[in-house]
Records
---
Amino acid sequence: MKLLMALSGALFVFYVLVHMYGNLKIFGGVEAFDEYALHLRTILMPILPFGGFLWIFRALLVVALAAHAYSAFYLWSRARGARTTRYVAKQAAQATIRSRMMRWGGVALLLFLVWHLLQFTILKINVGPDAAGDSAGKLVISSFQVWWVVLIYVLALAALGMHLWHGVWSASQTLGWTNSAKSRRTAKATATVIALVTAVGFALPPLAILFGIVKGN
Amino acid sequence: MNLTLKIWRQAGPKAKGEMVTYPVTDISEDMSFLEMLDVLNEQLNARGEEPIAFDSDCREGICGMCGLMISGKAHGPEVTTTCQLHMRSFSDGDEITIEPWRADAFPVIKDLVVDRSSFDRIIQAGGFISANTGSAPEAHSVPVPKPKADRSFMAAACIGCGACVAACPNASGMLFMGAKITHLGELPQGQPERDARVVSMVSQHDHEGFGGCTNVGACSAACPKEIPLDVINQLNKDLRGALMRGE
Amino acid sequence: MTDTQTASTVAPEAPAPTREAAPGVVHGLYTEGEPIVDTKAPKGPIEARWNKRKFDAALVNPANRRKLTVIIVGTGLAGGAAAATLGEAGYNVKSFCYQDSPRRAHSIAAQGGINAAKNYKEDGDSTFRLFYDTVKGGDYRSRESNVYRLAEVSANIIDQCVAQGVPFAREYGGLLDNRSFGGVQVSRTFYARGQTGQQLLIGAYQALERQVAAGTVEMFSRHEMLEVVVVDGKARGIIARDLVTGEIETHLADAVVLASGGYGNVFFLSTNAMGSNVTATWRAHRKGAHFANPCYTQIHPTCIPVAGEHQSKLTLMSESLRNDGRIWVPKNAADCEKDPREIPEEDRDYYLERIYPSFGNLVPRDIASRQAKNVCDEGRGVGPKVGDFRRGVYLDFTDALKRMSAEAVAEKYGNLLDMYQRITGENPYEVPMRIYPAVHYTMGGLWVDYDLQSSIPGLFVAGEANFSDHGANRLGASALMQGLADGYFVLPNTIRDYLAKGPFPKLEESNEAVVEARASVDARVQKLLSINGDRSVDSFHKELGNIMWEYCGMERSEEGLLKAIDLIRGLRDEFWRNVKVLGSADTLNQSLEKAGRVADFLELGELMCIDALHRRESCGGHFRAESQTEDGEALRHDDEYAYVAAWEWGGQDGTPVLHKEDLVYEFVEMKQRSYK
Ligand SMILES: Cc1cc2nc3c(=O)[nH]c(=O)nc-3n(C[C@H](O)[C@H](O)[C@H](O)COP(=O)(O)OP(=O)(O)OC[C@H]3O[C@@H](n4cnc5c(N)ncnc54)[C@H](O)[C@@H]3O)c2cc1C
Ligand code: HEM
Ligand code: HEM
Ligand code: SF4
Ligand code: F3S
Ligand code: FES
């Protein structure tokens, strides 16, 4: 169960990193971003039809998400079952806060994903002032000129950062990579780096757009 | 010093329990936490109230019999066992809540006493090296590299107190189990049964109703013997290996 | 003669006992019975005896073993090892302990180490030398055949434990490390930092749990044995109370083994666990098993001194600390209140190094303990005053810290020093530690023959519960050795000789003797709950402890012992009139458990004093004020007292009967010990 969670989590991490790299292209302008969106669809093009890789990858992600969420809720319910009588004195220890954060953070991420997909892939809801047409780049820029959209993203990214911070370390522990003091330190450091990089990396485009550093034309 | 104690009272395994408040006075700093409870019990006895049941035996921090949740912390504020906690860790006027370990795998027997036999059953599932009496080879025939011997010893220091389970938000017994896996797995003698051991102990652990580990780390922080988290990692590693080898 | 615990709480007006001298009654206290002539030890060369006994002992066909049930009370090194071994052999074993898990038996608390004649250091060790040292260390009050056997199997113990995964300390080359231990000049002690007992016990516990899983051993934890069932003169079972449900249960078997540990808690304050008791062995004693040398208790020199009124137990620090720490007190009583760091070198008295130059701080326990008492009696003790005297001496690591660096000291003794700091709140890396002797081990116990069989056929006794192979004093690191020797190697080989005669006729629970045993337990429980007086069990226990420590501790005199006997009788009488035990019999009731134990201690205490009184010699840790040399050293009387004193229960109102078993030395010459 834990193994499933770690593996699906790891896949997410990989995806998120790629995705972030892509998003950062918005700094290169709308074309660069659209090119990237196209590129996503044309990887392995001769072998697979247009969007084929993306679809495989999407399927994988959906399976992973299902597995991840399933194991999360399974563990959660087992934990509840393992202590049906709660303590009276609530422990203020950091540790509990962090584990709660994993769960609620995960749920927040799920909600965010729903919104995010609705917004950018499925419905392409445009809440922004400018027309976007077919350009993903324009859609993004237009959307992030609305402050509350940015707020949702920033909050979600904070959740993501926290989730990854513990998650990456936790995955390496679950996979059994950390049984010496040194490897443990490395795992902690890696987790911190990945968490920071993704949170900050993702946060840059929306903020940049909001504050007008990147403008659509 | 004077203190206010809020203590869990429960008449029996099936009875409903509640917190009861007891003031205590004139507690000396040099007393141990359990001696402080002894004083309270003498007073209760004198008043005709039944004394509070709690477990302890060696009172030296080694048998693992004692264990209380003290103001939300397993074994209280210091890194030690409840019996080795001294009143100098508290201040005059403090309010202290005292609860039993809470985990469905550790049902309450009475007041602060819980049943930890689930730990014994985990050991029965494979926490041993099969070496019948009299069949042992000469002790020096198998040298053990010192780093491995030391790591094995570090893990073997677990006293089976259950504080890890009590502190874990998931009520998971992974630290206890990881300690045993590491103790036996680091030694050449422990190799033949290594795969079977981890698989069967983990399955017993889950069967007993302990929660799953989500790497929170509260267990290790509460452990009086400072068993490090990497024993859980070792367990996961051994488990993965064993499953891959088809155990 | 006053000591750590003051007698102030002792009731002054205890009723005077009636002491009408019946014919043949000595001191009005006991009678002498037939001597014991045969201990069943084989004759011949000492090296050959154990092999001979093993060969002569009848065998039990493997197919028959399942049909034989053995009850083992106790899961310490002795009981745990025996249950595992008999389970492996295929017997049907029922194992009992009062803790919630067999892993918590008090053996777990042993810190220092376990001896074995492996001679890994090539420093001249041998089976014979271990045998010799143990006999000498026991002050020539142990049996040669038994001690030799102990030394002989010691090497097998280490092999067995290593195979089970006991993580003994190792050297860089990966081989086992050894250290030297109090009173011995060779390095033969195996250890696992300060947790040797724990690691050995976990080894035995795991072997035991393996048999539980295999179905050969049935485990009854949180069960307290309260009576032995004796049918037709043979031990056939026990009556135990399930401590959780309160149910009184009958368990029947073909043989019963008691491995229930020591009774040091008769002193209230001791290094024993809170639940350590004499109940199992005392109940057997009352059913006919002789109790041997009850007054032989070991006082351990390096314990943390008493801090206050409410202290519930004393904590031992391994005497391995004496290997590198130096013991001293101020030369002048006036310096005793000073900060020890400010007392200059020339004003310190390293008294052990001064009096015993060749052994120095490593003299045996009895000597180290008595000298500590002596310097404190002179008014040169340190630490808080307890009663009229300061009860403590310094154990100083300053020199070691200079010689070895703080890290090296921490590596060797870290956990002990941390424990000291946790308990006292003082940092031993900066301020010298304070130590004082405390009761630690009981060499006395149920009398057993060479087969570990008591005077009740079918009742075997192992580990600290029997009267031990140690004589009047025990060398460090030898109790673990005896526990495991008895449990793994001796008992499984000797009990088969008895079991080969079985299976014995099937017993019904309705058998008269069984019903009677059970009824007596029920009645006693009801009696304790019904007295409803005004004094708590603990207050009786503390008072008994004070009497015992004061008059039957390190130094004893005729006058003191007689007084103690009077006081104990008065106290016992009051106990049965005025104890207050609340709660009911059908739940977990810790006061009730304690009450039963204290009731038995109150009977044992008297027998201990009688034994101490009759032994008018200073021997082992027991200094008789009437028997000393001119310079105040202990004086033994081999011509009169070279025997085991085995006491037979004389009935509730009768007097105990003394049976003497002469100790004959063929291989070691008896000498007055000298460590000067
Ligand atoms: C603090 C300390 C340190 C020591 N250090 C050393 C050392 O370094 N080296 C050394 O050689 N020796 C040492 N000793 C001595 C040694 O540890 C003991 O003598 C030895 O372990 C006793 O083992 P045992 O198996 O006889 O009994 P124990 O381990 O005491 O076991 C007694 C068992 O009997 C059970 N029991 C008792 N009464 C009942 C009853 N009525 N009903 C049911 N069950 C019962 C208990 O539950 C327990 O399982 C030390 C002792 C102490 C106290
Ligand atoms: C559906 C929404 C999600 C939920 C409910 C959720 C919940 C959880 C939970 C409860 C854990 C276990 C915590 C632990 O093991 O300590 C976890 C672990 C993890 N999550 Fe999520 N999460 C979600 C989405 C995500 C996303 C979107 C990512 C990555 C972008 C992610 C990455 C990880 C990683 C890497 C781990 C560590 C795996 C491990 O512990 O072995 N999760 N998640
Ligand atoms: C600033 C932050 C982000 C921006 C600008 C952004 C932008 C986009 C865009 C434009 C798309 C559509 C791509 C396409 O259809 O070609 C997309 C898809 C997606 N994003 Fe994001 N995203 C952000 C953050 C995140 C985060 C934090 C996650 C996950 C935790 C995430 C997960 C996804 C997923 C799963 C898809 C669907 C991919 C697919 O259709 O295959 N995104 N994002
Ligand atoms: S791992 Fe630590 S907390 Fe858990 S049982 Fe062992 S000693 Fe106690
Ligand atoms: S606190 Fe619990 S979640 Fe795992 S790391 Fe420790 S067992
Ligand atoms: S009572 Fe033994 S560890 Fe606390």
Note: Residues 1-21 of chain C have pLDDT under 50 and may be disordered.
---
Amino acid sequence: MSKNRPVYEPFALEPSGRAHLVVTSLDAPPEGIEDSFDNIEVWTVKHNGPGVPVLAAGGVRPFRSTTELLAQLGHRLGRETAGLRFYAIGSEAFIWDAYNIGVAAGLHSSEISLHRAGPFVRRVYCSHCRTMIEDVPANIVTCPSCEAALFVRDHFSRRLAAFMGVKVDAEVPGEIPAAEVFTS
Amino acid sequence: MKLKIEAIGQLTSGIRKFTLAPVDGSPLPRAGAGSHVVLEIPGPNRVWKNAYSITSAADAPAYEIMVRRVEKSRGGSAWLHDHAKVGDMLEVSPPQNLFAPQRKAKRHLLLSAGIGITPFLSYLKLPGLAYEMHHCCKPEDEAAFRTLLPFGPQVTLHTSRNTLNLEALLKRQKLDTHLSVCGPESFMDVVLATAAHVGWPAAKVHKESFGGATGGEPFVAHLKRSGMTVNVGREESLLDVMEAVGLTPPCLCRGGACGECKLTVLDGVPAHHDHYLSETERAANNAIMICVSRAKTPELVLDF
């Protein structure tokens, strides 16, 4: 089952780093991490919250959405210097979006650590019309664009940060697999 | 291939430049930035095989190399300094590249000392390379090295360790920068230790080792499958001695970096001088890089 699925280690800060940037799609980081290292900054998402108050480095910065957070991330990493360790915590879609932004900014995979957390929902890529469907809770979903009934394969694309969705009876026409809510 | 020494120049008191060209003007194999060639150099009793970085551009009509006269010369560099003359023919291997510029890097930080400048001279001939270079040399060699380097803020020459603040330099590099370093072991050790200290990941740090073979106590190597026994003298490498008796063990960089010449040790304890084996592999004592490593025990038995 997990052949095409990344495996995640438990969250831990890397002592080899000189500075740490933790981004999470959750509204709070793992407890106590702000105090665990000197040079650490945490980006969180607080829906309908006050937004980012100041652009000062350090501490916890709440963004209003993952979209806002990810939009800022590339700019921020472009200003960073060697020695940074970058961490992303949240849904698989969010952490791989963050990973891809990190790599584009020049980070090597050994400078990035990813941790899956929160509800088991998936981003699904409709392989028929290329639509991305966010926060899908179960293995059968209807594409909102082309209206195809899709089966969500256990195949994760790191580049798209999404699972592959294909027509539900693609193998044998008329044969519909049992619906299951994701538990991983 | 046979190449002719077309020109010889004295760069510094200890470094000579050689231009190696094909006799009939035929095109040479392309030598990408960072490549080296192995020269076969005639000695009184045997042939020396030494690796030298190519300093000319990839598609130049002749290969240019620089040779430092090694104090305790293994033989090759002394001959090139004392006996080689324009018109001499040398057997030269096709270029190999173990130190190509990192393709994933958007910027390059190049740090070199002394003769370690040579692989970077071909890097600097790449069009549009985004780099910052720092070269360390003796004050008396500064003028000579300056003639080899482009003029501009991206290149700094240091004639004293005090003027190069490694820690500050490494700390201010952007995330998309890779570090490449070449020079004497002691220099590379300091650079690598400082980089690790300020948080550089190993994957973005690249080092070129050269002239790694240093002498040591003589030892005897039994080559089990060949049924031969060879004596490795104080100033010889195991690889050189095996080649001298007509064997053709695998090898590439001749500097302990590439891993090509790894042989299995069946008995005895090797003295590791390479940069290839991991700490665990070294401790296991069952493999040896024959181009640079020697023996702690008087005898070694190798699976060759």
Note: Chain A is about 15% helix and 30% strand.
---
Amino acid sequence: MNTSYEPAIHFQQVTFSSNDKMIIKSITGSFPKGKITTLVGPSGAGKTTLLKLCNGLSSPTDGQILIDNQAISTYEPTALRRYVSMALQAAPMIEGTVFDNLALPRSLQGEKLTEQEAIQYLQDVGLDQSFLQRPTNKLSGGQRQKVSIARTLINQSSILLLDEITSALDRQSVQEIETLIATIHKKFNVTIIWITHNLQQALTIGHYTWVMMDGELIETGESSLLNAPKNPRVAEFVQGVNV
Amino acid sequence: MTYTSLSLTLIFVLIPLLLSKTLKLGLEKDTLIATIRSIVQLLAVGYILKFVFDAQSYIYIFLMVTLMVIVATLNARKKGKGITGITWKIALTLIVVEFVTQGVLLGFNIVPATAQYIIPISGMMIGNSMVLSVLFLNRFTSEIASHQNEIELILSLGGTPKQAIHRQLMHAIKASMIPTIESQKTIGLVQLPGMMSGQIIGGADPIQAVQFQLLIIFALLTAATLSSIMIGFLSYPALFNERMQLLEVK
């Protein structure tokens, strides 16, 4: 990967095992600061596990992870997770309204979110204020994912981790979310790491890409590598997915 | 009751044995084991109680209550195998329940401080707490398994383990206490509680039997609440490590 960029997150020979199974196998690599890096690869490659390592929901069995050049283990866990936010694939919601969910990150710190602020965050993700008091079980898949993204923005994190946030959505919602992520990236100047199955998405939205297979980092570089992969396994994978 | 009339009650064992054989239910062996175990266990307890009551020594009372706590703990801990330190957490809960209930009953002279009162009441409190602990652990582990996403969501937004597990903890505490409260709402309407029936059959005044039964059900309310809440708050931290990560619940 182009080393002229300062890394937001750096992996140094990171290994992660669970129940005697090695899920991440000695990965070394960086996610450039202020850029969108997509994480692609077949199911079971260890992509979600890798994201969970980035915000401390899991810890490496071996190796070192640096966040802004500082060892991840030196961060206090709750502070780390506010600095490196994660939008989960299923966009889970707590019982209640959209407002209850938007207010959640603040309430966890004993602070309040005003209605005006909530409306602003909703607008940032392309939802109007009529959604504020809507129960979350009345939202469509796309709306739910947008609320989840808005909720992730509230901690004003420097790094956003997105776990297949468009995988269960219809074509129109996918496009809306893609535009939304590009806008958020510009507006908040955040580093984004985005797991996607959609290689077209990786090419158009991502600046860089990591291709993972079977717990290993097989190839990294600018997203255009997906057009002409050097590694034969990556070439086979890309062909199978049909860019 | 004479031993002759007691042996006649074995007719009640013969009926299920015959029915099981006729209908090929295959329950004969279990029925026989259950019958023999109840005879041996209850007779042994009867003789032990007679000895303890005659001796009227606090050492024997203490030993009896300790034995109850140990057996109840060993029984309840099977449900919480995935939780580190579950054995001492259940034992501590049962001990606190015993101290609080007996503390009030004896401290205010509600019942005399003799083995005849302390041992049966302790048995009911500890037994009930044991059932409550099992109910709680069952519900708590299934709540966590089905709401793992929600727990990880709160952790990923910068919440503490206590904040992350709060809803599941409260649901499990509430759910495990509901049967105790519900059963008290209909008490006496359908069936008379076992202890009260026993006293009445034994020749006690029904009003006095009711008074004792009320004492027991009120104390059971405290026992139930204390056990669910204590076992809940003692067990949830074991589900997370020092990096505030949710551990796998077995």
Note: The mean pLDDT of chain A is 94.
---
Amino acid sequence: MSNRETNGEPGPGARSDDSHGQPEDLVTSGFPILERTDFSDTTFLLEILHPAMARAAHPGQFVIVMADDQGERIPLTIADFDRDRGSVTLVIQAVGKSTREMQARCRAGGELFGITGPMGIPSKVSNARKVICVGGGLGVAPIFPQARAFKEAGAYVIGVVGFRNRNMIFWEEKFREVCDEFIICTDDGSAGIKGLVTDGIENAIAAHGDIDEVVAIGPPVMMRACAEVTRPHGIKTMVSLNPIMVDGTGMCGGCRVRVGGRIRFACVDGPDFDGHDVDFDDLMVRLQRYKPEEQEAMDRWSEHCRRLAAAPATTIDTGSN
Amino acid sequence: MARKTIRSIPQERAEMPVQAPDLRRANFDEVTLGFDQGNALLECERCLMCPQPACVEGCPVNIDIPGFIAKMIQKDFRGAYDHLTDSTLLPAVCGRVCPQEDQCEGVCPVGGSLEPVAIGRLERWLGDKAIAEGWKKTSYIEPNRFRVGVVGSGPSSMACAADLAKAGCAVTVFEALHAPGGVLRYGIPEFRLPNSVVDAEIGNLEALGVEIRCNTLVGRLFTIEQMLGEMDFDAVFVGTGAGTPKFMDIPGENLNGVLSANELLTRCNLMHADDFPNHDTPLGLGRRVAVIGAGNTAMDAMRVSLRLGAEEVHCVYRRTDAECPARKEELHHAQEEGIEFHWLTAPVEILGDETNRVRAIRCVQMELGDPDASGRRRPVPIEGSEFDFEADTVVYAIGTSPNPILGQTSSIRLNKWGYIDTDDDLATSLAGVYAGGDIVTGAATVILAMGAGRRAARSIRRYLGIRDSEVVYQPERAGFDGALFGMDLAEQNFTHIRQL
């Protein structure tokens, strides 16, 4: 753990004499939503105004989001950040109660109750000459800034992303801009190659004998499969873990994962780890911890939505709180 | 007035109403309900008004205890409150959570033959009265153009921020969570310290002009070095606490249903899992909860579990009740509420079912051997005494270690245990950066953290050249050119000597 980075060296020259107010762009409550884009009926993008975070964010880091004051603290990997616009971008899959509620309520012009970050140790953009950046499901968006960072560092970047079908595809243009090769994998073959991202990785490894590193972000099963594909080739494979967490600052220990036989906290020791050392079974078991409660919350939310739909006079709150 | 003697004062402590154990174990209301005015005044009469009061020395923030009690006896409650809050910002908090038996009350001479004066309960009564009456200290403070950033919003940070604000500094407090208060918010449960009290004390801080910014993770959103540099703070106080939970590294620790006391308390106190599903954060404790450890955090975790509906709550501790580090009052309350204590019992493995949920803990019986480095007799396992113990949830409350984020993101020097290295004035290795509380000492108490915060505030005032609240003195040498014995002061980090 030698990530001792100091972004701005202090010094007398850095002082501006009479600026005694806070930096005006330090938003710390009521975070404005600048834009929303829907990629499919479950996946949507939110762009949040937070100039200080946009300046501080690096690929691989995550944020904790609270949609409202009774919400959960939800960890989400940063999908992109724009230092000029002063914004960070999150891509969210509406899979549970909280994310569905966000899907129903978060609109451009509204705001989030809370967003904290960037959290976690930034991904190490190694000096690999040839890398495969793999994204699947939730991981497609956050693999993008990594691919871009590798490209900026001068690497030959092969992007491999997986979608269920052609209608789910997003950011293809963005990826093509930063990837030297770009392989789309779809479950049904409606775009790119038919198969999983592991097929894409195998194709890339077959075509290039000199891959230095693979970076994979996505559901745990996918990351495990990726690590198993690269293991026989001895290619270093970094994965980004997404366990259950509460505070995201190393305080609760809910995110502990087993890596190389040791207990690590994904929030402060990660979220990136060597995929060949991660105990994915352990991770997947721990992700099931609140299944009954999640189901209960989902059922209640579905019932709530059904009632709203049955009463056409009531509109869904656009979520300014 | 004739001088009071041990014979002339009321012999018994004034009565403190308490919620009955069988009622309170099912609610989150406070256990001890607090004095009424009559009882408070009665208790005041028990103070001997010692000319050299030991209690003041026994208090980590040196509250003038006879002083505020004297004003209370005259029924000048506002005056008493103002006197009290000259030394402590948080009377309603400290009156509840201080270990008074080891501090002011522990050295009270009345305690030689009777129960000592109930100083903590008097402090709490005054603090609560101030909140009820809406008393605020709104004295005008001459601003001094210095800006101080405070990292964390727990007790040490609050005390430091208050003292610096009173000295005229513009203070900004940065908190990583979405609500301020640190351990007072996420750690100490509602029945010991209601959130409304924390809110009121934070309100007092804001009334002093302190700005509190939540959702701000210092280290990652900006670094301490950036605070002193481009963010233009003249000094920084770090009070980030020792929040990282320890585990034991025994088999089965990653099973579902094993969690840290920090996680349990945070889910309940900060995220309101007790109100699931109205609040979204779940907890799901099951029927039988076993808590490992017997400190104050363990007591809190056990008593929270009871109130969340656990049918049985067990405490597993490898030493005996004599070595148990919790406050005696907390242990007593926990026992009254029906928590079962298993002394001289140590877990060796956590057993799971086929769905990887906790099913039981395997424990071993211990006996006390020779004293160890801490002077306590070392527990040693009795061979062949293993037994299994059914549990749905296992909670670790065996201590904490320092949070790693500042060490990862700044060049501040840490000691070999990972706590921030400071000198006696609480100065860190970075010029202008001071630290105090658990991040320096390791886990301790609210009042010790507050004491450290006040000490750091004194050091910061001296560092900034503030001798008292209003007067800022000129540097002693005019025409100071920034070089001393050929050293570049900027290079040596002496960047904050400024011309006034």
Note: The mean pLDDT of chain A is 85.
